[in-house]
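Recap from last week: sequence in, structure out.
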Amino acid sequence: MIYFSDEAIINGLKEKNIRCLNWLYREYFPLAKSVVEHNSGNYEDAEDVFQDSLVVLYLKARENKLNLNCSLKTFFFSVCRNLWLQRLDRKWRLLFVDNFVQEPSENYESTILGLDEEKLEKTRLYQKHFLSLPADCQLILGLFIQKKTLNEIAKIAGYKDTSYAKTRKYLCKNMLRKRIFNDPKCKHYLIHD
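Predicted structure tokens:
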């Protein structure tokens, strides 16, 4: 069994060594697959994330900008994770932010009459999970979607500083994302969008 050290992998990438690339695929692809499949993705998504992460690794190696303070495998894992979370975030925004309804109102039906059936379902799905969040999360995410700065969010929510507001926004957003992506109805939109 051939083994490539971190340095050999970096050099192999620079030289476009096929044996090194095959080894990387065999050893590192399970990392990408694990990240993606544990976060609402499928095998094809994992292949895309793996390829994109490999390109990032190649470009950094070629430009000698790969200053590692961890193992290459750990670095690659975090690149995969970051790329996938960015994709999920974009998909989440595309699915639900356009149809954001902050509070149900008497005019709810009139505000959604102009939406097609699919957008209406997305709106209902988003609103269902948004309204199931704790009140502070609803406030924070509502302000975030209104494009308020972290400083403004901290003041309105009564937090001492922006770092706590940032942490709460992150936790609330992930809570909402998990609830939406775990809903069986959401799977339909992820496949078709």
